[in-house]
Amino acid sequence: MSKDYQLKASINQKLIEMGERERLKELLRAKLVESGWKDQLKAHCKDVVREKGLEHVTVEDLVTEVTPKGRGTARQQQGVGKGQKSSCTHAPKQCLTNKPPDHIAKYYILKT
Prior knowledge:
Layout lengths: L2 H16 L1 H16 L1 H16 L6 H19 L13 H7 L3 H11 L1
Helix pairs in contact: 3-4
């Protein structure tokens, strides 16, 4: 296992233990809904089905067609270019630093 993978797994585990993972998922979900991203992707799915015909489209086809657009438009909604991180990626750090010092210490112990 790479160090990067181990670090990500450790941080993910701590977020779960602290109950922050679900909160962050809800925050992201709310931002995507608020920005209209979800509605845009839903409309794109409908367009694909109309173009190809309901009988000729599978769920896999929709996923293949919509995933790149979804990722690209999510970045655009945040004003983020490819390779950059959105404001949502800073939320885990904020939630860790808003906790009492013992939580921060545990985070840094895991990081090293």
